[in-house]
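A quick aside before the break. I want you to see a complete sequence-to-structure record at least once, exactly as it would be stored in a machine-readable document. Don't worry about memorizing anything.
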Amino acid sequence: MKPRTIALLAGPALFLLMALLPAPAGMSETAKIAAAITLWVAVWWIAEPIDLAVTSLLPLVLFPLTGLPMSAISGEYGNELIFLFISGFFFGKTIERWRLHRRIALRLITLFGNDPKRTVLGFMVATAFISMWISNTATAVMMTPVAIAVAQNSKSSHPNFSKNLLLGVGYACSIGGLGTVIGTPTNGIFLAYVQQHMGQNVSFFQWLLFGAPFAAALLLVCWVLLMFLFPIPATKDGALQDTIRLELRALGPLTTPEKLLLLIFGAVIFAWISGSIWWYTPLNEWIHQHFAANPSGKMPRYINDTLIALTGALSLFLVPAFDRKPVGDDYNTLLDWKHAVQIPWGIVLFFGGGLALAKGFEQSGLAQWMGAQMEGLAVLPQALLLCAVLAVVVLLSEIASNVATASMLMPILAALAASVGMHPFGLLISAAMAATFGFGLPIATPPNTIVYSAGFFSTREMARAGFLLDLIAILLLVGFIYAFMPLVWGFAI
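That is the input. The structure line, written in C-alpha cells, reads:
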C-alpha cells in the first residue's frame, strides 16, 4: 500500500477509533469527539495525503458532530485578520508583477561592496527585507537565480562562497518574514488566535517593534554562523558588483507603475506605523462625531490595520498604471483580477481551518481538560519549559507545514500556559515564530527546497548549519520574549 493511501486512511481510522473508545477520566463525550477531529486533521496536515487547504475544510464538516453549529465554525473562515493577509497578498502580487522587489533587492546588495563576505551579508539583508512584505517562497524564487548568477560569475573559486550565498538566501527568506505581521502566515495564525480567544489586538507597529529587532539579530547571527562554519578568505572581487550592476541595468529606469506602487505601499506602511501611535485617535473621534448612530456613547475603534490594508489593496485595482498595457492583461491598472486570483488562497483556508480548530477546542471543553492534564508541568522553571516547547515546535516544523504546526499548537499551548500559570501571550507568539524556523532540512520550508535544488551544498551541510541555527534561534527568541515583551506589550511571561 502506498504511503499516501496509508495516510489517507489513517486519519478517519484514528478518528473512529478515538470516537468509539471510552473517554478518559474527566473528559466529556463532546471533548472526546473534538480530540478525535483534531487527530484526523493533524494526521492529514502532517502527512499531506491531500492538499493542506482541503484538509482545512474538515472542521466545517466534522465539528457539528460535537453540537457546535456550522454557522459558528464557518464564521472563523471570515475572521478580520484573514482580510489583512489577503490585502498583503494583493500587495505582494502587485510588487511581483512590476518586479519592484527585484529592483529594491539589487539596490540593497550594491551597498555592501565587493568583498565576498559582505556580498553574502548584502544578499541576506536584501532577501530578508523583501520577505518582510511578500511571501517567503516568492522571495526565494526571485533571489535564487540572482545568487546563482553571482556565484557563477565570481572570480573567487572558493566553494564556501557559493554555499554561504545560497544558504544565506534560503535562511533569510524565513527570517525576514518574522519582521512584520504580513511577513509569514504563522504570524497571522497567532494574531487571529489571540484576538479571538484573548481579546488582545496586536497592531502592525507593535509587531514591528518586537519582530524586526529579532529578525535583524537572528539574521546577523545566521551570517556569523555561516562565516564560521564555511570560512571565506578575505578578498576583493569586482566581478560580484559587475554582475549586480548588469542585473540592475537590465531592469531599466524606474517605471511609472513602480513609482505609484512605492507611493501607495509607502502610504499604507506609514499609516500602519503612525496609526498605532497617534493617527487613529483624531480620525476616530471625527468619524464618531459625524457618523456614529450614538455619538455620545463609547467611541469604538473604526480605523485599524485591516481597514488600512484593504483600502490600499483596493486602490491597486483602481489606480491606472500609466504605462503600456502588458500583453494579455485585462485592465491597465496596477493590479487586475487575472493576477490577484493567483495569490495563495489555500493559505486563507488554512487560517480559517486553524481558527475553527481552536474554536472547537474551546467550545467542546477539550482545552480545559488538556490544561488540567498538564498542571504537573508547573514545577518546571518557566524558561526551561519555554525552551522545551519551542524545541518541539521547531522539530515538528522540520517535517510538517509551518502553518499546520502553528494552527495545531495554538489551542494546546494556550491550555498549557493556563495550567502552569504562564501568560499565554508569550508562549503563543514564540511558538508561532519558532514554527517559521525549520532551517535544518531541505523539505522543511519552500525556500530551503529552492536553494537546495541549486546544487551548491549537500543535505549534510544544510543540516549542520540549519540545526545549529535552530538551536541558537530558540535561545535568542527566549531572550527576546523576556526582554522585549514587557517593553512592547506591558506584561511579562
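Two observations worth writing down. Residues 150 and 242 are 9 Å apart (CA to CA). The radius of gyration is 24 Å. We'll return to this after the break.
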